[in-house]
Structures are given as C-alpha cells and as structure tokens.
C-alpha cells in the first residue's frame, strides 16, 4: 500500500478533529478526501506529511512510519498545502529552484515530470509569485511539490479559489501524473471533482462516512430523488420542507432535490399540495443521485 492509516485520532483541546480514521490508498491510485470546511482534511494531511503528531493510531506512507521514519517520508512525498506554500517575493523560477535545492536536485534533473505544467507558467518565470493569478500560483505550487519526483503526492484543496477552466486543466494534469505512477491523495470540498477520483472517502466532523468508488457511492443512495422546480425557488423550498411526507429537501442548482418518506410516492399528489402554496409552473421529474446527495444523506 502507498498510504496505510490505522485508527488515527487527533484532538485540539475539545475539538475532535479526527476520530478513529482507518483507510488505505493503493499504489498509483488517485484517492479523494471529500468533505466540507472543518471536516479534518488538513489535520490528516499534516499527520501524513509528518508535520503533526496524531494522538492515537499509526500511519505508513510509501512504506515508512510517519513518526519513526519521518525523514524518509519527507524525501518520498510532495505536499501542496491548502494555503499556498510559495515565497511571494521570489520569482516563479526562484521558487522552483529553491524547492529543488532543498531536496538536493535541480530543475533540469526532473524537468520531464513537471514539463507539462511548468511550460504554462514558464513565460512568466521572472514574475514574483505574489503577482501571479490563482491558476498560475496553483501550477507553480504543484511544480514545486513535484520537483523532487515524489512517490506520493498530497494535495490539500488544490482547486479552492481557482477558476473553472483552470480547475478542469488541473484535474487533467493529475490524471497525467497518475499515469507516471505517482500515488495521489487529494482533498476537495467540490463534490463534482469527487467523480474524477478512483476512490473517495467522504469525511465530516473528523469521521469517515463512507469509502468506495464514486460510482458505487451513488449506487448506495437509498431513495429515488426527484428534481422539483417551480416559479419561486424560496417558496418552493419552504413548501417542500412543510410537506408532511418529505424525507429530504436540498436546493440543487436550478432545482430542489426532493425525496419522499413513503414507498408509494405519487408526484401528482405533491404537485397538488404545492399548488395550494400558490406555486405555479411546477415540474417534478426523477433524477439520479449525485455524490453530493449521498453526502447529505450520510451526514444527516
Ligand atoms: N491548531 C488548531 N487549534 C484548534 N483547532 C483546530 C486547529 N486546527 C484545526 N482545528 C479544528 O479542527 C477541525 C478540523 O480542522 P481541519 O483544518 O483539519 O479541517 P479541514 O477539513 O481541512 O477544513 P479547512 O478546509 O477549513 O481547513 C476544525 O474544527 C478546526 O477548527
């Protein structure tokens, strides 16, 4: 296994940031840690990259124990923290050179690994990192995390605050890195990115809710979901929440995702009820569960 986590717990005074976390990441896998702010993702990353001690449990990364063999781990992993790790006053090239030097390598030696990513920011190599756009900073931070050819790459919310086009490009880059045999553990609060991982762990309040492939996770969703729309979104949500047979009601883009507590649900009956709430232009259609629906159901 590339990453093997056994019963890890960590608290900050009264806050239980991680509770009894156990899972494994296979060599070459692109594994996603999916959860909202405060779920404990950063705490787990810091433990796995040897920057923080767990209160309980153990973990191996690239075959090394995170406590006893921390030096070996530091040479074997790349870490891109959530808040950028770049030196704002150094140029693009100076940042990359700095990270290469501390790992005893050079940009030239491992250029092949970062080429795809670095060529996109190379035209700005004399610009200070602080003056780059979010997408460019992200590419530079990824190049810096890769420059010593790590076996395992940790990416903590790499696409937060990055525009949609750069986000898509970033995930394409991750797929290419995966093909080069690098194991990747990536965290994200964006549920749509979860579908791009080989397997995901849904995490909330320091606990793992479920671990599986994205496809299997949505298959486990226990109910039929309906897309409901009407002329007034706010009144629609209020009306559905007041409906005596509702099981769940979540706004989802231009629709509301609705599930009913009964097994013999009749959409026409719901439509008639919503009309009594002065709603019009009502549409109720079956839809497939998404990872976000599953997360909301498990997190209840
Ligand atoms: N140094 C600290 N002292 C006290 N509480 C902390 C500390 N670091 C994290 N926490 C708390 O531990 C919990 C988990 O935080 P963590 O940063 O690991 O979550 P996260 O999923 O990475 O979220 P975020 O995206 O907001 O960083 C949160 O409740 C957070 O407030």
Automatic annotation (TrEMBL):
<feature type="domain" description="ABC transporter">
    <location>
        <begin position="3"/>
        <end position="230"/>
    </location>
</feature>
<keyword id="KW-0547">Nucleotide-binding</keyword>
<dbReference type="InterPro" id="IPR017871">
    <property type="entry name" value="ABC_transporter-like_CS"/>
</dbReference>
<dbReference type="Pfam" id="PF00005">
    <property type="entry name" value="ABC_tran"/>
</dbReference>
<keyword id="KW-0067">ATP-binding</keyword>
<dbReference type="InterPro" id="IPR003593">
    <property type="entry name" value="AAA+_ATPase"/>
</dbReference>
<dbReference type="InterPro" id="IPR027417">
    <property type="entry name" value="P-loop_NTPase"/>
</dbReference>
<dbReference type="InterPro" id="IPR003439">
    <property type="entry name" value="ABC_transporter-like_ATP-bd"/>
</dbReference>
<dbReference type="GO" id="GO:0005524">
    <property type="term" value="F:ATP binding"/>
</dbReference>
<protein>
    <submittedName>
        <fullName>ABC transporter ATP-binding protein</fullName>
    </submittedName>
</protein>
């Amino acid at each position: 296994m590339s990453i093997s986590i056994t019963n890890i717990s960590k608290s900050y005074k009264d806050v239980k940031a991680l509770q009894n976390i156990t899972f494994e990441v296979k060599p070459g896998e692109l594994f996603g840690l999916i959860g909202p702010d405060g779920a404990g993702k950063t705490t787990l990353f810091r433990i796995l990259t040897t920057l923080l001690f767990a209160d309980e449990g153990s973990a191996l990364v690239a075959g090394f124990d995170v406590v006893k063999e921390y030096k070996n781990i530091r040479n074997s992993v790349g870490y891109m923290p959530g808040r950028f790790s770049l030196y704002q006053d150094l140029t693009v090239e100076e940042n990359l050179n700095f990270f290469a030097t501390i790992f005893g390598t050079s940009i030239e030696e491992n250029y092949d690994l970062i080429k795809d990513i670095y060529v996109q920011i190379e035209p700005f190599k004399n610009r200070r990192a602080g003056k780059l756009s979010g997408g460019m900073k992200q590419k530079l931070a990824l190049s810096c995390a890769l420059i010593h050819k790590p076996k395992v790459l940790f990416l903590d919310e790499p696409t937060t605050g990055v525009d949609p086009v750069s986000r898509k490009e970033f995930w394409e880059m991750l797929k290419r890195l995966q093909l080069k045999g690098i194991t990747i553990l990536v965290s994200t609060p964006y549920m749509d990115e979860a579908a791009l991982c080989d397997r995901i762990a849904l995490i909330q309040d320091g606990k793992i809710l479920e671990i599986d492939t994205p496809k299997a996770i949505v298959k486990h969703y226990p109910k039929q979901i309906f897309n409901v729309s009407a002329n007034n979104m706010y009144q629609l949500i209020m009306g559905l929440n007041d409906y005596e047979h509702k099981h769940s009601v979540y706004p989802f883009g231009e629709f509301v995702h609705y599930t009913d507590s009964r097994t013999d649900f009749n959409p026409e009956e719901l439509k008639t009820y919503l009309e009594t709430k002065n709603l019009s232009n009502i549409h109720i259609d079956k839809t497939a569960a998404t990872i976000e629906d599953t997360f909301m159901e498990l997190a209840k």
